[in-house]
Specification:
The protein is of the alpha/beta class and 251 residues long. It has one domain: NAD(P)-binding Rossmann-like Domain (Rossmann fold, 3-Layer(aba) Sandwich). Helices cover 41% and strands 17% of the residues. It has a seven-stranded parallel sheet, sandwiched between helices. α1 runs parallel beside α2, α1 packs across α8 and α3 runs parallel beside α4. The longest helix has 21 residues. It starts with 12 loop residues before the first strand and ends in a 10-residue tail after the last strand. The structure holds NADP nicotinamide-adenine-dinucleotide phosphate. The site of NADP nicotinamide-adenine-dinucleotide phosphate has 28 residues, from α1, β5 and α7.
């Protein structure tokens, strides 16, 4: 039999819903999943950067829809959740949006504390809850982009570390509740990754920023995509990544 000259057709899964898709890790995840889903549904604040991700996703064969939303706003979050809950089927929901804060408690303003908790923890809770029906229809997965700060005992992590510790509890609880419905839940604990968030952290701490020594968002996306590509009888629950180069002794 002569080999076919047609390119192999990919059987695409339904839709990927990704928060934080306008930047960094979320954008890289959106582009990776755009290769294997019918539609990417992108959520972020910056409309122009969100549209840029959408255009790049379409070049990878997926259709796209963009939702500009401030996730700390209860009104905007609830409107978004209600809209997404009407989707017919979702194959993956990825929570990548996040805000960082490192103020010591004495200097941590209540509104900053509330905002970090709202974006990093309340939004993933509410969107996961709203999408349980579509995720069940799509035999889907929920991915929480977490941080290696969980479990670390460091000053300045009351808000960010608290939100991410809560995110781990949310993921662990959801997994036990949703496995019987056919859903899988993955937490990804990232070390320093070369994104605008990490660039800003280095600037705040007046440290030189060498992005090439950090994790690359595309590598994170590749790993998450591979974990979810396993047969559904296998579930990766937790992935811990750190930049190898940052831990090598100086040459
Ligand atoms: N970079 C790291 O070293 C590192 C390490 C551990 C964990 N993480 C986690 O990785 C995830 C992705 O972060 P990143 O490094 O890719 O940072 P990033 O490049 O700064 O991206 C953050 C994303 O979150 C969105 N976002 C932030 N606040 C929002 C709000 N109030 N409402 C709606 N969207 C909001 C941003 O939207 P706009 O750009 O449109 O404003 C952007 O798309 C975060 O959950 C972060 O905690 C990062």
């Amino acid at each position: 039999m002569s080999p076919s000259t047609e390119s192999p057709s990919i059987e695409r899964r339904a839709a990927a819903v990704i928060t934080g898709a306008s930047s960094g890790v979320g954008s890289a995840l959106a582009l990776r999943f755009a290769e294997t889903v019918e539609r990417v549904i992108l959520i972020g604040r910056d409309a122009a950067r969100l549209q840029a991700t959408a255009r790049a996703a379409e070049q990878r064969g997926a259709s796209s829809a963009c939702h500009v939303a401030q996730l700390e706003s209860a009104t905007e979050l609830e409107a978004l959740a209600a809209q997404l809950a009407r989707l017919p089927a979702v194959s993956v929901l990825i929570h990548a949006a996040g805000e960082f804060s490192s103020e010591p408690v004495a200097e941590l303003e209540p509104e900053v504390f509330d905002r970090v908790l709202r974006v990093n923890l309340r939004a993933p809770y509410l969107l996961s809850r709203a999408l349980l029906g579509p995720l069940q229809q799509g035999a889907g997965d929920i991915v929480f982009i977490n941080s290696s700060v969980v479990g670390q005992r460091r000053a300045g992590l009351a808000a960010y570390g608290g939100s991410k510790a809560g995110l781990m509890a949310l993921a662990d609880s959801l997994r036990q509740e949703c496995n019987p419905l056919g859903l899988r839940v993955l937490s990804v604990f990232l070390g320093a990754t070369a994104t605008p968030m990490q660039r800003d952290i280095h600037a705040q701490q007046a440290r030189p920023y060498w992005p090439q020594a950090l994790l690359q968002p595309e590598d994170v996306a590749q790993l998450v995509h591979a974990a979810l590509a396993l047969p559904r009888g296998a579930e990766v629950t937790d992935l811990h990544l750190r930049p190898a180069a940052a831990h090598r002794p100086p040459q």
